[in-house]
Amino acid sequence: MHxxxxxxxxxxxxPNAVVTIGNFDGVHLGHRExxxxxxxxxxxxxxxxxxxxxxxxxxxxxxVKKGFRLISTYAEKETLLEASGIDYLLIIxxxxxxxxxxxxxxxxxxxxxxxxxxxxxIGYDYAFGKNRQGDVTMLRRIGEELGFTVDMLxxxxxxxxxxxxTAVRQMVAxxxxxxxVRLLGRNFSVGGTVVHGRQRGKGLGFxxxxxxxxxxxxxxxxxxxxxxxxxxxxxxxxxxxGDNPTFGNGSLSIEVFIFDFDGDIYGREVRLYFVDRIRDxxxxxxxxxxxxxxxxxxxxxxxxxxxxxxxxYQEYLAEEAP
Length: 322
Hints:
The protein is α/β, with parallel strands linked by helices. Helices cover 32% and strands 26% of the residues.
């Protein structure tokens, strides 16, 4: 996948470009179906597939939703888009100046004048440009004039389940990491760097790795059964998310006890794949009670993780690549 990090990087029109536009936060199964459609249509006319997205997310720049958290980091989104088999990705810096551009000017100058769009595929509720004037009616009107077609996709569902980034955010925030696999098509994951903590886990007999992450959306505080990927090796583990109320820390931490592992991973990158939620975070009367609870958690996690295979980015690549 070739990435353009600004409109100016596109030196000439793309051949028979089939385009979709959106934020695609989380790259869930609904997004993947849009990408499949884009790739099919591009192949049918001997063209190329292009996804247009924005950094930062417009909601972030415009500040219209307080507490809004991205499902994926921007780096994760690029990885997931590439794994979906897209030919080109255009990342447009979403600035105040860009936000003021009318939808019609965006279509005429950028989609047609710079990219050379032949077909545009959008979701049923998508609109763009100043005051969200770029809806399907306007796009089809301009498309007839300038020589491109517009397909609008209806809500993408599986039974009674509607795929949406909003639903993903809600489920992860509620700790439903098992259920959210149905929306994402993969295990929700958090990557980061192992940093030094307070060493309390080691004193309790369960040394933990403390994760520092750029991820905005973190599952609800509690204990989770996780798979832990260290370089190319995957281990089972138990993860605690919270502020360690027994010790009154007061700040959110992500700590993971990696089963049957004794290596030094300080400063190294690891990724946690969330499989299931075990319990809420609890304030225990003393460290001994906490130690006993951790032992029960570890036993439960070992049971849950037995023979579990995580779904990660590599499976996307194997499934989606043409």
